[in-house]
Design goal:
Elements: E1 2-7, E2 10-14, E3 25-27, H1 29-33, E4 41-46, E5 49-60, E6 66-72, E7 81-88, E8 91-98, E9 101-109, E10 112-116, E11 150-159, H2 160-165, H3 170-188, E12 192-202, H4 210-218, H5 227-234, E13 239-244, E14 251-253, E15 264-268, H6 277-285, E16 308-309, E17 316-318, E18 329-331, E19 341-342, E20 345-346, H7 355-366
Parallel strand pairs: 11-12, 11-13, 13-15, 17-18
Antiparallel strand pairs: 1-2, 3-4, 4-5, 5-6, 6-7, 7-8, 8-9, 9-10, 14-15, 16-17, 19-20
Helix pairs in contact: 3-6
């Protein structure tokens, strides 16, 4: 069992899927109470040792809440890691990465918090079958880096099933997923940013089939979630996310290389934080594909694949778009690129694995759908 403390006096208990002995954590209540978008650092206590978490990306939210992401370096035998959190009236919604350990923390009412087991390592990334290639053409985008910051506005449509099935603040979870996505762009030098355009709850009853539910979300006039299309226009949302509770995969994008009519994605709430699933699905809309060993297709970009690295006798890693390594790898908040290094190794190569370049080519188009 994992025993963690998030705030003084509040015991968190859950299960670590990575190791039998997971770290104890403590985040000072005074620090989180005073947290604002400009807070340069937070103090964590890991296994009794103080750790300074440096801010990398943060935002004051329209609700008055705060989204904040940061990291700390490895020291000696102690692993480095990342912390992303959202502070809302319900409490702290957070994800902590430390080596192989991944902790997801939610408020459960009455000032209490708990950790949840993560479904991301038990479920496939996508349902079976290929994601169709959309109408995006390489000739219609770019050049890379020419546009100013691309702000992608996201409408989150949460099902009533997801609201009922999630023990914490589901809107804060959506903001946490956005914060994790923005951390990947920050780390990779992609001039792109996702922001919440709106959050609505639909009474639509999930079918248990993610592909069918996403198709119904996308299709106007079919009698299912038809109100979403007017809401998308009302909120000027470039992309629409269906946040779900029942499916046999973590996420799905409508198309690889989408136009505005195909800019719809679905994410299972159990997978919404911790493995950068929202960033992964938006990556598909922008034209990014999985690692070339699992996904050798070359449209719309031959160089647009994810990347994984498996060193001998050590834990490997994989970028946002990559499927898992043969022996298991942790996902890191980086996009594949020959120009980015992680642990001294390039996160991609120029001919097959340069999703950073894909995003730089297509980000302005995605951000211009509304």
């Amino acid at each position: 069992m994992l025993h963690s403390r998030l705030l003084p006096g509040l015991l968190l208990a859950g299960t670590s899927l990575a190791t039998a002995a997971a770290p104890s954590l403590k985040l000072q209540e005074a620090a989180t109470s005073a947290l604002h978008a400009g807070t340069p650092a937070l103090m964590l206590e890991i296994e009794g040792r103080p750790v300074a978490v440096r801010r990398e990306h943060s935002r004051a939210l329209a609700t008055g809440d705060v989204a904040w992401s940061g990291s700390w370096d490895a020291t000696g035998q102690a692993a480095g890691g990342e912390l992303s959190l959202v502070r809302s009236p319900a409490g702290i919604t957070a994800v902590v990465h430390r080596g192989e350990d991944l902790l997801r923390i939610v408020p459960v009412g009455g000032g209490r918090h708990q950790t949840l087991p993560l479904a991301t390592r038990q479920l496939p990334m996508h349902p079976p079958g290929d994601i169709p290639v959309g109408p995006l053409k390489p000739s219609a985008v770019g050049p890379a880096g020419a546009a100013p910051t691309s702000r992608v506005r996201l409408l989150v449509v949460a099902t009533a099933d997801a609201v009922a099935g999630y023990p914490g603040d589901l809107r804060a979870l959506a903001e946490l997923s956005i914060a994790e996505s923005n951390l990947t762009y920050q780390r990779s030098g992609v001039d792109m940013d996702v922001e919440l355009a709106g959050y609505v709850v639909t009474p639509y009853e999930e079918s248990g089939n993610m592909e069918q539910d996403l198709r119904r979300l996308r299709s106007p006039g079919d009698g299912h979630m038809d109100e979403v299309h007017a809401l998308r226009d009302q909120h000027a949302a470039d992309v629409v996310l269906l946040l779900m509770n029942r499916a046999f995969a973590c996420g799905l994008a409508d198309q690889i290389g989408a136009d505005a009519d195909g800019a719809f994605v679905a994410v299972l709430e159990q997978c919404a934080a911790g493995e950068y699933v929202l960033a992964h699905e938006i990556g598909h809309l922008a034209g990014a594909r999985h690692d070339i060993k699992r996904d050798p297709a070359v449209a719309p970009f031959a160089f647009g694949h994810g990347y994984w690295y498996q060193p001998p006798r050590a834990l490997g890693w994989r970028t946002v778009m990559s499927y898992d390594c043969p022996t298991g790898c942790r996902r890191i908040p980086y996009w594949s690129s020959p120009d980015l290094l992680h642990e001294g190794q390039p996160t991609g190569n120029r001919n097959e694995a340069d999703n950073r370049r894909v995003l730089e080519l297509t980000r302005a188009k995605i951000a211009g759908f509304r």
